Amino acid sequence: MVATSYQTASALLALLAAGCSMKADLSSSDAAIAAFHAQLDRGQFAPIYAASAPEMKNVTNEADLVKLLAAVHGKLGRFKGGKAVGWNDTRNASGHFVNIGYQATYEKGPAMEEFLFRIDGDRALLAGYHVNSNALITG
Asked: Which domains occur in the chain, in start order?
């Protein structure tokens, strides 16, 4: 019976530690989203790329990301606010990632954004970004 109690206590401690880690991961991701929007508004597109995770750099080059972000900023205008509407915290053989669905409001309309972050210690590094908005098509 002692082994069972010990195993149960160990499992509970592991769950509590994972919960604390998840909270820290989401906090890091929230800060990274705020920094992304601030840099987007200031036109600091190259620094977004420079600070991104290897996964981002493996799928696009700096010039292409800068063009994309400049177009997004040009079509949507300044960021007004937003909120996370879903998230997924994943650990696998490739690393530790947090994916966040984000409902954003910009000057020229709403947008649905998806951020993928590689968690590196206490930092969330941008590994992917997708945006959908009617303002990108009609604006």
From this structure: 2-138 (3.10.450.590)
